[in-house]
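One chain given next:
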Amino acid sequence: MNQAHAERVRSPPQGTPDMRISPGTSFSPACIRSFPEKFPPELADAVIDQLHGDIISLRACALTSSSWLSTSRYHLFSDVYFEDEVTILRWIRAFRTPSDIPAYVENLYISCVSLLDDTPNAVLDFSTFTRLKGLFIGNDKVSSAWHRRPHWNCFQKIALLPSTSLRTFSLSSPTIPIPDVFSVIFRFPRLDNLHLRCFHALSSGGSEYTKTEDLPPFRGTLTLVSHLNFKHLVMNLLEFPSGIHFSCVILTVLRDDDLPSLRALVDMCSHTITSLRVTIDLAIPDDESSYLFDLSNLNKLSELSVTLHAMRFPVKPFAKMLSSTANGRSQLRSLTLSLFTWRSWSFSVQDVDQWNALDVKLAELSQVTRERSGVDLAIRVIVNLLEHGPHDIRDILPRLGNRGLVRLISSSHWVILAAN
């Protein structure tokens, strides 16, 4: 009887993951995130003891377990994820005093914007997050059907953060009141990563910021994804009093009338941009006169990535971009050109000739880079054929013969990916 009982203790119940701890076992953040919600209470403290001294992350699903909530060792967690009001309320109640909560938190992930609203459940006091380096609000699943926007109270709470700690701020929301964001975020002198993703950027918000405010310049990474009113985001940046000097710009443009704003933003940061990654989800005219692709003024550019979602590859603008880069003073090290198109795209002889011309421009740029800096330029040109159509690339290639396309595909930097 005693032997049977001991065997049951040593072996987990059927259907329960075997999480018995052996001497010397180490746990990684990925392991912690995989723990089930119904974590065996008798193992909770033992696991946390083994994690002592490590920088670990704890997903909200684990926080909902009463066994985790009963422990007194939360100071070990530096990355905390919250997905709903219930989780955060349980977590807060597990502490003796509110000041114990954020003592060691360095990265806070909050997927539910309402946690920061002026609702009864908005219980976070950011003034006590003395070590917070990254604040991530919302999630990437931004939908036009969800019209809830962050209240001004949300940004007032963020303003309570110690001004010397925050390095990264990310906000994903159906709507973003631009003035509210800029009036708060740029108060953090060490902020070097700003990520804004919204469906609709509002040009007015709960509190207008004063254009004459003496705010520190922002130098760092900017990520902008706006389905509507992209130009409002950019215009507010252009009007910012102390200057915006991004070193890395990541943009997604979805409307024709946003292209001038994109150009204006790039020009504004022409002397500081080292990395430019642009996704353009619209057709670009195959016109050599397009000023959008003239990058001769980006003197510090080292990484360039352009992704297009279009029916055809706009060879002439890309060729102009390569020529202007070669003629400029940039120190380009990495170049990626990507096209997402359809498998039914018809490959004509003219297409092949244009691609060959583009390949010549790539070779020229590579040669200039080698002569200028003594290093080889890393080049990738990717064509993604997304769906089935009347033309299969495997049928097209033999008919093209030796006109150059086969050479391009087999070279080191041309890749064509066909959907299965």
About this structure: Residues 349-373 form the longest helix (25 residues).
